[in-house]
User: What shape does this take?
Amino acid sequence: MKKILNIVVADDHQLFLDGLQLIFTNHPDYKIIAQAHNGNEVLEAFTKYPIDIAILDINMPKPNGFEICKILTKDYPECKVIVLSMYNEDQFVDEFMKSGATAYVLKNAGKTELFNAIDVAMKGGTYISKELQHYTSSEPKDGFVKTHTLTKREIEIIKLLALEKSSNEIAQHLFLSPFTVNTHRKNILQKLGLKNSAGLIKFASDNALI
Assistant: This one.
């Protein structure tokens, strides 16, 4: 049986917590096991339950979201920290990502984007909200690559596959072997959770790669 992952959600507005509780109801993979209104309640939840994911707001008292993120990263390194915030300034994103958060999602996002962010984080990737695609870390990393855990070579191949280039044509264009191209294609489909080239073309179109 597939393990359902436990979540603690933290925000100082009960109405917002109730909304999160509602959208996770009956989710096949994730379950909210605890709610917290401040940082101390987040830490208390970790002493009571086995928690896999923490969804945090920034403006929490005792201690705030930044401080809690650092504590969880240090004391519970297996836990994925998802920041759910109203702030779209780069300085907030950068501070949280440096503190160990694995995703930063704006509060005006839909539930589909939130679920996607969690999925990416649980697969070992890093997710930045769609509205923050302009964000660039103080470290030299490409924002799109970070979001989808793709290498720059894989993005090159996605673009060419979306243009309906064959493996042989891509191999010639990038000075690779057809076998290497096919290996990249297989890895790309697996990372993005896609089944075929049609899905890959749609992904490329949705993300302005073509």
Notes: The first strand starts at residue 5 and ends at 10. The radius of gyration is 19 Å.
